[in-house]
Amino acid sequence: MADDLNAVPFRGGGFRPERRRGVGWLVFVVLLGLWELLTATGVISNLTLPRLSDVAMTYVYLWESGLLFKHVIPSLQRFAVGSLMGLTAGVAVGFAIGLFSLARAGLVPLVAALFPIPKIALLPLFVIWFGIDEGSKYALIAFGVFTPTVVATYGGVDNVDRGLIRMGQSFGLSWMSIVRKIVLPGALPALLSGLRVSLAIAIILLVAAEMLGAQHGIGAYILEAGSLYDLERLFAGVIMLSALGVAVSWGIGQLERRLLAWRS
C-alpha cells in the first residue's frame, strides 16, 4: 500500500506520439464540407473556387472516358522510376560520405554546390542532354531526389552514437557487421525523414517535367486546364497530386512503424 502511494507517475509520455485514429480524416471532411458550403452559398465565387460537387463530377467524366488512367499511370511511372533512381544513388553516396573519409572530403563540397541549385531551372538543360521524351523527366526527378537524400543519409550516419560503434568494435564485430547492425538502424530515422522531403520534391518536379513536352500526365492535364481557365479540371488535377502526396506519406509512415518499432 505504501509503495502505491509513493509511486512516481511516468512523465515521459508526452514525448512519445500516440496514434489518434480518424482525426486526420475528420480534418479532411470538415475542410471539404466548408469548401462545398461556402461555394454553394456564394460566399466564395465560383469564378475563383469551383464547387466541390462540380469537381467530383469531373472525376466521374474522367473515369467514364478513361482519361483518368491515361493521365495518372504515366505520372506514377515517371514518379516511381525517377524517385527510385535518385534514392538509390543518394543513399549510396550518403553512406559513402558517412563511412569513408576520402569520400567525405571529395563529395561534401560537390553536394553543397549542387544542393541549392533550383532543379526546375535545369529542365531545359536536361531536355538538351536527354531529349524531350521520358529521359529528361526521369533525370529531373532523380536529380531533385538525389541531393536531399544524400544530405539526410550522411547526416543520419554522422548522428549514430559513436559509443555503440566502439562497443561493437570491442566485442570483435567486423566492419560490415557494425554497419549492418549499428550504423544502418541508427541512421534509419534520419533517412526516412529525408525520404518524406525527397519524395515531396519529386512530386513537384514531376509536375514541372510534365508541363514541358508531355501529352499525358497530371502536370500536362493541369497545364491544359489552366490554359482553358477550366477551374473544375484544374482543381481535379491538384487533388490528384494531393492524393499522391498523402499516399506517399502513408507509405513512409508504414515503413517507419515496421523499421523503427524498436524506438517505442
Explained architecture:
This protein has helices at 2-6, 23-40, 52-65, 67-99, 101-114, 123-130, 134-158, 162-170, 175-210, 218-227, 231-259. The chain has 264 residues and is mainly α. It has a domain at 86-211: Orthogonal Bundle (MetI-like fold). Helix 4 (67-99) crosses helix 5.
Describe the SSE topology.
Blueprint: H1 2-6, H2 23-40, H3 52-65, H4 67-99, H5 101-114, H6 123-130, H7 134-158, H8 162-170, H9 175-210, H10 218-227, H11 231-259
In short:
The chain is mostly helical. 76% of the residues lie in helices and 0% in strands.
* Low-pLDDT windows of residues: none
Strand content: under 5%
Gap between N and C termini: 30 Å
The number of helical segments is 11
What does the average pLDDT come to?
87
Portion of residues in helices? over 70%
Q: Give the SSE order as H and E letters.
A: HHHHHHHHHHH
CATH topology of one domain: MetI-like fold
What is Rg?
A: 24 Å
| Class from helix and strand fractions | mainly alpha
Q: What is the level 1 CATH name of one domain?
A: Mainly Alpha
- The CATH H-level superfamily of one domain is MetI-like
The gross shape turns out to be globular
What features would you highlight for this structure?
globular, single chain, mainly alpha, 264 residues, MetI-like fold
